[in-house]
Amino acid sequence: MDNFPQTNSSYPVGGGLPVIQYWAEKTLSPQGLQLWQTLNHKSACLSCAWGTGGQKGGFVNEAGEYLQRCAKSVEAIAAELQPGIKQDFFSENSISELQKLTSQECDRLGRLSYPLILRSGSSYYQRISWEEVYDIATQAFNLPPARIASYSSGRSSNEAAYLLQLFVRSLGSNNLADCSDLCHAPSTVGLKKVFGSGTSMVSLESLEHSDCIVLIGSNAPANHPRLMNELIKLRERSGKIIIINPQIEIGLVKFASPAFPIKSLLTGGSDISSLYLQPTPGSDVALFVGLQKSLIEQNLIKTEYLKSYAHDWQKVLDYANNTSWDDITKTCGLSQEEITATAYIIGKSARVVFAWAMGITQHANGVDNVFSIANTALITGNAGKIGAGTMPIRGHSNVQGFGSMGVTTNLREEIKQALSELLGKPLNETPGYHTRDLITAAELGKIDTLFCLGGNLYAANPDLQQAKQALSQIETIFYVSTKPNLGHFHGLAKKQTLILPVFNRFENPHKTTTESGNNFVRLNNEGKSHLQPPDADLISEIELITEIAHRLHGKIPIDWRKLQDTVYVRKLIAKTIPGYKKIGTIDQEKQEFIIEGRIVDEPKFPTSDGKAQMFVTPLPQLSLPSKETFGVTQNQPGIVLILGTGRSYGQHNTVVYRNEDKYRGMPHRHCILMNSLDVKKAGFHEHQRIKVKGDRGELDNIEIICGAILEGVAFMFYPEANILFQAKIDPQSGTPAYKRVPICVYRSPL
């Protein structure tokens, strides 16, 4: 059964000609040859965790399928191939001038090619030598462990991640904040509690056997375009795709993939959604409890499976059975008929994959959302068999690898013991700061030194004023990056801020590895930087971390300079990281691999007794404040809405490549997407400029754009909208609720 907008033949198509045009524009440009060479380089994609690359070639995925590059990959590589920033740029542009730049303008400054420092009292970044960097680092890290912290993103390699956590723990600190704390931490926390493993239990090969995918809170056409090829193939084999998203994303309705050029040209693209549900943001638990209730009523529960392979399943069923339809439908905003139809498709399908992104995790009850999805998979027997299971869709290309390497405040006991043996001493048991705790601690003056390996800690956080203030209380901040970003100009330390330029993934002088969102480890070949001396003065992340460690520790208890050999690092990873044994021989055998113990194709889970642990998930209590709460009077034209923030189609994390979002009809970054009924109800009209106010800040001169979004809901771009709100935090994971932010859209009376 297909529903609107699937059957609307006039509905726009995602992908297709605009993607091909973009490819042509970039590959026929002056840097086109370099771009093609890099696209074919044997290294993992710089973009999302669904990317391709590795030893099978730049365009080939782990299954050996060709034509698997996407526009996101081209965007990321093209940005890295920019020329180096000129020698005199920073001496001619003050910090106040640099703070006027947008994210896109920061990125287009070019590649960082020499180390910089901004000292207290100065208005200009100045070039310094690497020797000065190491002298500063030696003093900055020679502090009590509690006052040292790191933050990281998934742009780096497994080897750099492993060395980062080893270095920080060698100092006695567990303050290893990571960008995953702001996005998929609820997936990791929730899945570990249910199944014993916090990653996808579905491999690419397994996915190709499914006959139904439930895709929740994901805009895959924009953020994970490679996944769209798998959805197209599923529909071609008569499978069903259920989309759950408050906003209708055109690429999830119909998508034209360049990987299927004939089909795209002849038919105008492939149908994606079989059923498209638009629930109230923050109500996912109610929807999934409703699905469970309907599955019970339709006798589609796998009771014998539950008896054999799960704990506390009866409590989950009882809760769903005893929850009224009225409570469920009022909370999620969907009808009983819609939920019943969805449950029927799931219950009648043989192999169902439940996949989700940050539309599920970035909520005040993100872990409960993940529990409710896992419960639904279990009661239908869709966990522990080929073509079925749970599949969180990670955003950054190696963000999952960072967690595997131990960059986390919740270190697994077996890794803790192995690292203690390696470092020759027990690890500090003091709990470390995750990202939001780090901001709070910094604001209270508890952090003196912060080492940021990639990422944009300032802009990625909610409440940008708080983030800026918190970072300004830190004595020394090191930003390890390839290109400038907003954080380098706004997230300034009290005493000294350093920007340290490094090689990117396809430039490193040594082999590295990365991990995909489906647990596949790729080997990246050596490369060469296009930035040539005398302008360029870059080093690798591996050299940077190990040299700082050597100057602090010497050869005790490890010969840190020996760790500049990534072959040796991989042998240590093989000995200390569970499931990574094969990385110890990857250099000799060139054999990429799936991590042991993660893909579950039989109902025996990596828990203490092999059974899944189910959890009752209470319906959330959702409400909205009044206009008066925002200081807006009733006589002022306006409306209170639920705001969800997200990326545009020309964006990767906080990095903006293109200002507009043609798919959503948003011509620039200072727009708010609203339902036309809400626009009319508020007394506004499309393209009118209004004010948007949250609980922490306000934006003015925002243009209204009408779009296919649920009534009562609005959408704005991240990170610009982060200034509006201080998000509620999920107490179980520490992740902020970016997807349910109360705002008031209004204008002052004339």
Strand element count: 28
The total number of structural domains is: 4
The average pLDDT value, as a whole number, equals 94
CATH class of the largest domain: Alpha Beta
Indicate the structural class: alpha/beta
> Largest beta sheet, briefly?
7 strands, mixed
Q: What is the level-2 CATH architecture name of the largest domain?
A: 3-Layer(aba) Sandwich
Helix content range of the residues, please? 25-40%
What is the name of the CATH topology of the largest domain? Rossmann fold
Strand content: 15-25%
Radius of gyration: 25 Å
Q: Indicate the overall shape.
A: globular
Number of helices: 30
End-to-end gap: 50 Å
Give the strand order of the largest sheet, numbering strands 1, 2, ... along the chain. 3-2-16-15-14-4-5
Poorly predicted ranges: 1-11
Written overview of the protein:
The chain has 750 residues and is an alpha/beta fold. It has four domains: 14-80, no CATH class; 94-179 and 413-591, Rossmann fold (3-Layer(aba) Sandwich), CATH 3.40.50.740; 185-392, Dimethylsulfoxide Reductase, domain 2 (3-Layer(aba) Sandwich), CATH 3.40.228.10; 627-746, Barwin-like endoglucanases. The chain contains 30 helices and 28 strands. The strands form seven sheets. A seven-stranded mixed β-sheet has the order 3-2-16-15-14-4-5, with helices on both faces. Strands 21-27-24-26-25-28 form a six-stranded mixed β-barrel. A five-stranded parallel β-sheet has the order 10-7-6-12-13, sandwiched between helices. A hairpin with a 4-residue loop joins strand 25 and strand 26 (698-706). The radius of gyration is 25 Å and the shape is globular. The termini are far apart. This is FdhF/YdeP family oxidoreductase. Keywords: Iron, Iron-sulfur, Metal-binding. It holds the Pfam family Molybdopterin. Residues 111-477 form the Molybdopterin oxidoreductase domain. One of its GO terms (molecular function) is molybdenum ion binding.
